[in-house]
Write a structure and sequence with these properties.
The protein has helices spanning 22-26, 50-70, 126-140, 188-191, 198-205; strands at 3-4, 34-38, 41-45, 74-77, 80-84, 87-89, 93-96, 104-105, 109-111, 116-120, 144-148, 154-160, 163-170. It is an alpha+beta fold and 206 residues long. Strand 5 (80-84) and strand 6 (87-89) form a beta hairpin.
Length: 206
Amino acid sequence: METAAILPEKTKSLPPAKAWTQAEFHQLPEGPPFYELDEGVLREMPRPRFRHQKIVGLLFAALSAFVIKRGLGGVWPEVEVDITPVQTYVPDLIYLTPENMARIEDDLRLVGPPDLAVEVISPSTALQDKSRKLIVYQEAGVPWYWLVEPELLIYEYKNTSEGFLLTQVAAPGDSFSPQLFPGLIFNLAELMGELEPAEGKEEQNG
């Protein structure tokens, strides 16, 4: 399935008391609190919940095992990405092909777009992940973007000359076969132990 994604309007924020440069941002002491930089504005990153971190961990384990075994590059959780000269984000996961791993600067951050950015949505980050980051990732040239809902819905977006296209939606119980990784198939709900056998449900309901 390939359908055009409707890009929402850019989110607005209050004028910052100070317009931070990327160089100044990189001089901040290591958190907590932790921040992302968005056109001069510092955005504090709330601490993730247990379910959020479990989803990130399962995705990381599945992707990392797949790409390492095949020599396809690397996967990292929660690293700084200078996505543009005025925006530094910390996606939940990024993937890099071997050709792009040279853009890791001083073992601290990635300069430029990753080959895949993954954001696991939290209540406090839903608007940012679905609107502002979707726009920035698309304009910065991120080839693939996954949005993962806490209910285990996975949205796969591909960057094209027409913008991001929604190429796949995997609902709970569906098998997700990412186009970026031919041969990789996984069911996130099963990995999390969320699905019960039908017989067990019938017995409970009876």
